[in-house]
Amino acid sequence: MRRRGRLPAAAASLCLAAAAVALATITLAARPAGAAWCIARSGAPQKTLQAALDYACGPAGGADCAPIQASGLCYLPNTLAAHASYAFNSVYQRSRAAPGACDFAGTATITLTDPSYGSCTYPSSPRHCRTVRIHHAENSHVSISTRQR
Asked: Would you say 131 and 147 are in contact if contact means Cβ atoms under 8 Å apart?
């Protein structure tokens, strides 16, 4: 007879595997449809782009520029446009995608195509925010509910 509250090792492994699949599914499904990012505009003048990057990474801009430093996950490609795109997007997301927050003296634009690559992930702003809640009761399945904010 099994003690109450403990699962056999095989059942526990199966539950962990199922939870991992559910979490992966939730992670993929929770990625907002219609997300937006702020990136450097193609053809922007280098001097203006550099000034905008300096602003974004400075105290007034408030961007998280650690990922575009030499040891960061978004350092490569080491180009002005790539670094500016990451910094611009950081400011834009921190502003909660406020109107006008993606301009940077005309050097930036909104894109609906995720600019993330490799290990460099650009945060995104959903057009319609949702809260995802995961409900789990002991010895039962996982259920997911969402609500509009």
From this structure: yes
**Cα 139 to Cα 4: distance, rounded to the nearest angstrom:** 11
Q: Do strands 142-148 and 130-136 pair parallel, antiparallel, or not at all (unpaired)?
A: antiparallel
Dump pLDDT digits (tens) for 7-37.
455 444 444 344 433 433 333 434 456 799 9
CA separation for the pair 139, 131 (Å, rounded): 25
| Rounded distance between C-alpha atoms, residue 75 and residue 77, angstroms | 6
- For the chain, what is the total number of helices (H) and then of strands (E)? 3, 4
CB atoms within 10 A of CB 101: 18
Q: 143 is written with which tokens?
A: 């259920």
Supply 7's token pair: 């699962």
Bridge partners (DSSP) of residue 106 are none
CA 51 to chain centre: 25
Q: What is the pLDDT of residues 28-81, one digit of tens each?
A: 434 456 799 999 999 999 999 999 999 999 999 999 999 999 999 999 999 999
Q: Which residue has the higher pLDDT, 113 or 7?
A: 113
